[in-house]
Amino acid sequence: MHLSHALTHRGTVRSINEDAYLELPHLGIWVVADGMGGHAAGDVASQLVIDGIQQAVEHLQPETITLDILKQSLISSNRFLQQMSEHEFDGKVAGSTVVVLWLYQDNYHLLWVGDSRIYLLRDQQMKQVTKDHSQVNDMIDEGLLQPEEAESHPLANVITRAVGVDSQLDIDYRTDNMKEGDVFLLCSDGLNKELNDVEIERTIKSGNIIDSGMALLHASLVRNARDNVTCILVKNTPKKINSIDDSDKTIPIFG
């Protein structure tokens, strides 16, 4: 059984929210997309990516969903965004990052493009299970930059992949085993711009997914949330509902 809680906010600086998200717990699918700020129609781009995935899977049964179906949805969105850029935005780029979490049976599956992230909290230890497609991350890989220098680097906002930018979409994916009690966090970079990994881990460990989600959003807003902020917390719970903590039984959805 999977419980989830999603929140999004435009932040304190941006005039519109270019983030979008999708929750399909009955299918085991959650998505966060972050439209590219400063480009044409970032909010349109992120919502198009979200809508594409929803339309691809909403008529399916969980056992018929595949990684290829999810990938093809992103490839179709990439093609459509390129056409929109050419015909509706005078050649200006309309792009979006995306992270997808798909849970089925005892496995979790991740797909991502860009620098939105997925974290996994397991046995009270959190780790980032996606890898940012960003200029600073490439510099870290090449030994030119230390990880602790990344957030403050002048190129921190430069991403190297996004849906809608190139004719060929390079999608990263990962599949691994899932454990009872695992908690996944999907987020746009507006969250990790304001909170470091230690702060995020401490917040997730401190309470149930509703309290943790509200605390993450509140903390980012207190720090003036320079970007849009979106987060989804997903908990893999025991199959018997009577063994679930009361505070996790009712999961409201915040838009």
UniProtKB/TrEMBL annotation:
Q: Extract the Gene3D superfamilies matched here.
A: PPM-type phosphatase domain
Q: Where is the PPM-type phosphatase domain?
A: 3-236
* SUPFAM superfamilies to which the protein is assigned, alphabetical: PP2C-like (SSF81606)
GO MF, one term, reads: protein serine/threonine phosphatase activity
Taxonomic superkingdom? Bacteria
Q: Note the InterPro entries from the entry.
A: PP2C, PPM-type-like_dom_sf, PPM-type_phosphatase-like_dom
Q: Name one Pfam family in it.
A: PP2C_2
Its name, as the record gives it, is Protein serine/threonine phosphatase
Supply the source organism for this entry: Shewanella frigidimarina (strain NCIMB 400)
